[in-house]
Amino acid sequence: MARRLQLRLLTWDVKDTLLRPHQPIGEEYATKARAHGLEVEAAALEQAFWQVYRAQSLSFPNYGLSHGLTSRQWWLDVVLQTFHRAGVQDARAVAPIADQLYKDFSNPCTWQVLQGAEATLRECQKRGLRLAVVSNFDRRLEGILVGLGLREHFEFVLTSEAAGWPKPDPRIFREALRLAQVEPAAAAHVGDSYPLDYKGARAIGMHSFLVAGPEPLDPEVKDSIPQEHILPSLPHLLPALDHLESSPPQL
User: Fold this and answer.
1) Which residue of 3, 120, 190, 240 could cross-link 234, Cys pair, CB 3.0 to 4.6 Å?
2) In terms of pTM, does the model score above 0.90?
3) Nearest-CA neighbor of 170 among 212, 139, 134?
């Protein structure tokens, strides 16, 4: 008879898995600009932000640490470039806005805990699971989680800035397993990104669940993941864990 799988550790992504900003990025940027006397369309800022963010992440991955940048410098540059792309040419006018936005996104009040997150974390702990964070976030994450009342659920918070490697680099997952002293087969990761979270964790032998949300999944992604690994919402994790632990030990 096959031995029953027993998970010991659940690692968690944070942004768009457990929490997200109260306002869309473009609206947040536009609101702060208005407070400094600049009128910029939120939609233009939203589009510009994602273009700049993707380019910055490619040119200076993981907050540019290997290029001698700090995460704060990295983010300030993202804000300056976002406003420039949205039509604001005066960098001196944007500098105080960038500084204020960096502070605001350090503040727990800027973030909201997603529906079902806290109850799901509590239920996982009741089941005896150890919980930890593995996130491509910067040094501000610890304080944000404390302020939102979520930090108490996790044994440790491992950010890509602290680890030196961003997901899906296997080294950040291996570091989490080392900190927890758990083998990959006894651990699972929960996140909303197919390449970073789902595939990244499975590449080193962990189990994994993809938080898909209400929007339809890309057909290629959906076809490559067992249905029981897809979570339409966080409360779906609990029956998914039951299914996984009642199955023969395998990936």
Assistant:
1) 120
2) yes
3) 134
